[in-house]
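Entry for the shared binder. Reason: the reviewer on the internal report wants the predicted structure included alongside the sequence.
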Amino acid sequence: MEILQLKYFYALAQTQHVTRTAEQLHIAQPALTQTIHRLEKELEVPLFEHQGRNIVLTEYGRYLQNRIEPVLKTLQAIPEELQTLAGERQKLLRINVKAASGLVTDTIIRFQKKHSDIRFQIVQNEELENADITIFTQKEFHPPHPCKDQFSIFSERIFFAVSGNSEYAGKPSISLREAANRKFISLTGAKNLRAICDSYCMQAGFKPDVIFEGDSISAVENLIAAGLGVGFWPHYTWKRYQGNDVCLLPISDPECHRVIVIQLHARSRDHAEAVEYFEYVSHFFEQLKTR
């Protein structure tokens, strides 16, 4: 059975008048008659019978009419439902945040003040495939090739964080080798940042002794400020968290940095709101470097 056959049958079942139905469907009468005959042949039962000059439904016809009525109504509603869904989708941004979550939250708050109708879905998922934008960090960035995604890339220096009472606090800079025997404080869940910093320690000839991992940047700051350990501190993405009790030292050897990558996925390059937010957050990060 074809949908067109069922639509023609249902229309004829409603009127039980061939000429009138053909006019409603804007088709020739023979075309309607042939379509019904093909359907009856396929189903191997008569759907209509003649009563004088009129036609009426057989018991098979009435059964088929009742069965397909909800199906055809559902099919008829689908285009409008899809348009509604498309409109809702345009107002939903899926952001996969794997780095700089505090700053990304700031951008969302500011962006939504001017776009109150836009909804955000924020996740932190390594395997998420349907995000519009992903924000992540790497030591060095090499975009996949070939790739139709769009990227904004920002280099950020990583500082050495110590307590304000530390013997290192007054130094203009520090070589990472000097911290080989120190206890380190790290951020729970910051896998990529942790891997980047670990690699710099290995480059300096040691494996960091991480004695505590906090679940927030503020927790890391408090532990370092208390003198319980030292840590790494991304310059501008964590800058707002730095209190007076934490001193940041430039690392002279090796020079430590990371890149923040804002990725607009190819599937969302026609999503106007996603493109606008991508440009907004990219500009926001660019402005941070000049403050």
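Summary line for the report: Residues 59-90 form the longest helix (32 residues).
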